[in-house]
Amino acid sequence: MNQFRRRSLLAGTAAVAVSAFTTRPATAAAATADGFAAVNALGQNGTTGGVGGPVVTATTAEQFLDYIDTVGAMTIQLQGRIGITSKQGVRPNKTIVGLGTSAVIDGGGLDFYRSYNVIVRNIRFTNAEDDAINVGQNSHHIWIDHNEFVTPVDGAVDIVRGAEYVTVSWNWFNQTDKSMLIGHSDGNASQDRGHLKVTIHHNYFDRSRQRHPRVRFGEPVHVYNNYFRGNSLYGVASTMDAGVLVEGNYFENVPYPIYSGYAESDPGRVVQRNNIFVGSGTPQTLGTVVEPRTYYSYTVDDPASIPSVVPAGVGVGRV
Predict the structure, then answer these.
(1) What is the DSSP secondary-structure string of 72-114?
(2) Which residues form the signal peptide (predicted)?
């Protein structure tokens, strides 16, 4: 099924706009992915986004939808508020980056369907009528960095249906409900098992309720140096034989910081080490997990520093 929505404007106004900006330098800071998004795999040399392609600026929804549906590398700068509906497909080799502190995608979200090598940074996602970002259908090498998520109807970030080599870093989940799902359903083992390799670091789960993340089948899912604050339902849930390493995080007023198994889902394996729990419950652990260092190197910050470091660095305007 083709998830990309072709629009007649691509051959007209949008094409003119692309050529008009081909020599314009990016005004947003360049960036280098880390974690699983930086791993050389599946024929992809890390995640570089739109490097080597034209740099364009979208100020309207019409421009934005045509740019994300364009074949080839491109850096798409968002300026101001872009109102869209539903989930809109993003083709491979794109950098989507907000300019300044006022770039907003409102009402809809981004959908990755067999897409790859995409960077999403410095954008405030508000009022998505479904998921704000859905990484699905064997998409890979996606980096979601320095964004803010506010009031999506469903998930803020879902990583499902065989997606892998994804990093979610330095985002502010601002009182979201279903923050992050990894693994589509209990019955989707054939597609998800052996995939769903995800790094989640330096995010602020700020009074968000659940799924930070909820994982099925994925291994390893590496959750490190995040700030969990006032998460009323639970923090991390490893289910359906997933393998999750929870490392160097700070849990504050989280009654159920780590679950093995949740609701109707069977238990998953989960290892916790060097975390701090303040006003929080006792974490559940089970079994062993493949070490992320098998795939990439990383440095864990002192977890005691997380309540100051993470809120100061997450979200928009910090890149």
Answers:
(1) S-EEEEE-SEEE--SEEE--SSEEEEE-TT--EEES-EEEEES
(2) 1-28
Ranges of the chain with pLDDT below 50: 1-28
Give residue 30's pLDDT.
Answer: 58
Q: pTM of the predicted model, to two decimals?
A: 0.92
Nearest to 172 by CA among 213, 205, 125: 205
User: What does the pLDDT look like over 179-230, one tens digit per residue?
Assistant: 999 999 999 999 999 999 999 999 999 999 999 999 999 999 999 999 999 9
Of 202, 159, 205, the C-alpha closest to 181 is 159
Asked whether the beta carbons of 136 and 112 are under 8 A apart, the reply is yes
Q: Give catalytic residues, as residue numbers.
A: 211
